[in-house]
Every structure is written in structure tokens, then in C-alpha cells.
Amino acid sequence: QHTNGYHKILFMGNSKNVTAIEELNQNIRAQLEIIAQDNSACVTQAIPTMLEYLPEGCSKAHGVKELCKHLGIDPTTQLLALGDAENDAEMLEMASIGVAMGNGCPMAKDSADYVMGITNSEGAAGAAIKKFVPFTNL
């Protein structure tokens, strides 16, 4: 449990301005990474136009791990995790089966056990569930 007094700070760029997105992802991210190191925090990204500044220990992986513990599920043997972004990478690594969408970022794809050949907008999540949880009626 963190005690920093914040849950998440978002830094957003204008999605229609390529220069602003590059500035966010290169210069601003580099500065945030330095600040994060000095303040027990981390920087991650869900979409190209947004950076997330989080207290140390706060992540999708941590939240999913806590939920699994509450439900009596072993994530290393019983969890199928799906993701497409940098902020999904730790969760994909933790899961028994981590699946990245075909349009996922390189970090998500590198962290996954399996990468779908189709994108999330083409139904990759449903196809992954059908593939890895064959007893479903999807």
C-alpha cells in the first residue's frame, strides 16, 4: 500500500500534433523518469499520447495479483492476461499465459507468451479467449 498521497498523475499530449507527442514521449518522459527514480515512483504508458506517473508498486500487475489473491487464484498457473500497451507488460509476464494483441507495442509483445496475428479492433481479445480457454461459448 502506498502512502504518497496520489494514485496516478497523467501527462497528455495532443493526438493531432505529432511534434507534441514526440516531445511527450522523448523529452518529458526522460525528465519524468529522473524524477520518478528520486521519488520511489515509475513512469509507464497506456497510449502514445499519455504518460502515467505512478507511486512505486502501483500497476495493473499489482492490482491483478491482489484480485487473484482475494479470489484464491494462482496467477502463475491460472491466469490468462491480455494486453497491448507498455503498462500491460508486467501483467503479461506474471500471468500463466500472457497474450499481446497484434497491434500491441513492442514491450507488450516482448512480455507476452503469445502474440495474436490480429489487432484488438479485429477481435483479438475474443479470439485469444477462444484459443486459450476452449470451453467458452464465445
What does the model show?
By secondary structure, this protein is of the alpha/beta class. Helices cover 42% and strands 20% of the residues. A three-stranded antiparallel beta sheet has the order 1-3-2, covered by helices on one side. It has a three-stranded parallel beta sheet with strand order 4-5-6.
Mean pLDDT level: 90
Structure classification: alpha/beta
Task: Characterize the quaternary organization of these chains.
Answer: single chain
Instruction: Compute the CA-based radius of gyration.
Output: 16 Å
Number of helices in the DSSP assignment: 6
Shape: flat
Report the portion of residues in β strands.
15-25%
Write the layout of secondary structure elements.
Elements: E1 9-12, H1 18-38, E2 41-47, E3 50-55, H2 60-71, H3 75-78, E4 80-83, H4 89-94, E5 97-100, H5 106-111, E6 114-115, H6 124-132
Parallel strand pairs: 4-5, 5-6
Antiparallel strand pairs: 1-3, 2-3
Summarize the structure.
The chain is of the alpha/beta class and 138 residues long.
Keywords:
single chain; three-stranded antiparallel β-sheet; 6 helices
